[in-house]
Specification:
Strand content: under 5%
Order of helices and strands: HHHHHHHHHHHHHHHHHHHH
Number of helices: 20
Distance between the termini: 60 Å
CATH architecture of the largest domain: Alpha Horseshoe
Number of strands: 0
Shape: elongated
Largest sheet: none
Pfam families: Sel1 (PF08238)
Length: 336
C-alpha cells in the first residue's frame, strides 16, 4: 500500500526548495527537527539522493519521538503495511498506540483491528472493543461498522443484533457503503428490530449507488418481486447488470433467468451467456439451466455432451433435479 505523504510534504516544501541535501543532512545531525523530517522526506522520495526507506524511517522516528502526531501515525502505517521496510506489527502497534492515546480516531480504529485480528499479539476482544468505541464515538464510520460487526457476530461480546444495528446505522448515515448494505439486509429480514421494506430499499439504494454488488442484487430483487415497492422489471435488470459487470454470480444467474423468460424480450443467446458466467462460478441452478438449454438446443446448437457436463456439475452439489435430468439424458443417449 502506497501511503499518502501529501499532508506531510506540504509542511516543508519551501525549505526543501531552498536548501541542498548536504545542508539539510548537516542540520539534521545537529538535532534540528524540521531538517530531520525533511531529510527523511528526501530519502523517502529520492529527492536529492537515492531512495532509502530505512534511512527515511530512521530520521522520522527521531521527529516522531518528540511528539509529531502525523509522523507517528505515518510510521505506524509504514510498519503495518511494510512500506519499504520489513513489516513489523509490534512497531506499528507502538506508534499507533501513541497516536490513539492522543485521541486520533483513525489510529484508534487501526489499533482495534490489530487487537481483534491478533496481529503481532494475541487476540484481545476487550481492547479491540475499547478502541473501536473510542473511534466510533468520534463518528469514524469504519469504527462504527467494526463495533457493530463485533455485536453482530458476538466476537468478545454478547451477540446483540439491536446494538449491531445501532452502530451499523450510524456508520451507514456517514456514508460507509458496506454498512449501508448490511443495515438494508437487517431491515429486510427484521434482524435487530421490525422488518421495514421501505428502509431496506433506501439503504440498498445508497449502497448500490456506491457500487456494492450485493446491494445492487438486493435492490434488483426488490424491483423484480415488487417487494415493498412497485414492481419494475427494467429497473431490476438495470441493477442486476450493474452487479453482473462486477462478476457477481447471483446477478449473472438472475439476468439469465430474465432473458430465459418472457419478463423482458426473450433472448436465449443472452440467457446462455449469463447462465454460463454464473455456472462457471459454481451456481448450481445456472449449471442445471445451462444443461437444459444444451439438451433442448434452445438458443444454442444442441449438444448432449455439454448438457451432460453441466448436469453433472450441478448434480455434484446435490441438486436433485440435475441428478434426475442426468439420469434421463444418459438413458436417452444410450437409446440413440
Amino acid at each position: 500500500m502506497k501511503i499518502n505523504l501529501l499532508t506531510l510534504s506540504l509542511l516543508s516544501c519551501t525549505l526543501l526548495a531552498q536548501k541542498s541535501f548536504k545542508e539539510i543532512k548537516k542540520e539534521a545531525e545537529k538535532g534540528n527537527l524540521i531538517s530531520q523530517f525533511n531529510l527523511g522526506l528526501m530519502y523517502y522520495e529520492g529527492n536529492g539522493t537515492s531512495k532509502d526507506y530505512k534511512k527515511a524511517k530512521y530520521w522520522w522516528e527521531k521527529v516522531a519521538e518528540k511528539g509529531n502526531i502525523k509522523l507517528q501515525h505515518f510510521l505506524g502505517q509504514m510498519y503495518y503495511y511494510g512500506e519499504g521496510i520489513p513489516r513489523d506489527y509490534s512497531k506499528a502497534k507502538y506508534w499507533w498506540t501513541k497516536v490513539a492515546e492522543q485521541g486520533n480516531p483513525k489510529a484508534q480504529h487501526f489499533l482495534g483491528q490489530m487487537y481483534q485480528n491478533g496481529e503481532g499479539m494475541p487476540k484481545d476482544f476487550i481492547r479491540a472493543k475499547f478502541w473501536y468505541e473510542k473511534a466510533a464515538r468520534q463518528w469514524l464510520p469504519e469504527a462504527q461498522y467494526s463495533l457493530g460487526t463485533m455485536y453482530a457476530k458476538g466476537d468478545g461480546v454478547l451477540k446483540d443484533l439491536t446494538i449491531a444495528k445501532y452502530w451499523w446505522e450510524k456508520s451507514a448515515e456517514h456514508g460507509y457503503k458496506v454498512a449501508q448494505y448490511n443495515i438494508g439486509l437487517m431491515y429486510e429480514n427484521g434482524d435487530g428490530g421490525a422488518k421495514d421494506k421501505t428502509k431496506a430499499f433506501y439503504w440498498y439504494q445508497k449502497a448500490a449507488e456506491q457500487d456494492v454488488a450485493k446491494a445492487q442484487v438486493a435492490l434488483g430483487s426488490l424491483y423484480m418481486n415488487g417487494d415493498g415497492i412497485q414492481q419494475d422489471i427494467m429497473k431490476a435488470k438495470f441493477w442486476y447488470e450493474k452487479a453482473a459487470e462486477q462478476e457477481d454470480a447471483i446477478a449473472q444467474f438472475n439476468l439469465g433467468l430474465l432473458y430465459d423468460s418472457k419478463s423482458i424480450s426473450e433472448d436465449k443467446t443472452q440467457a446462455i451467456y449469463w447462465y454460463q458466467k454464473a455456472a462457471e462460478q459454481g451456481i448450481a441452478d445456472a449449471q442445471y439451466n445451462l444443461g437444459a438449454l444444451y439438451e433442448s438446443g434452445e438458443g444454442v446448437p444442441q449438444d448432449y455432451s455439454k448438457a451432460k457436463y453441466w448436469y453433472e456439475m450441478a448434480a455434484k452439489t446435490g441438486d436433485t433435479g440435475a441428478k434426475q435430468a442426468l439420469k434421463d439424458l444418459k438413458q436417452m443417449m444410450m437409446k440413440k
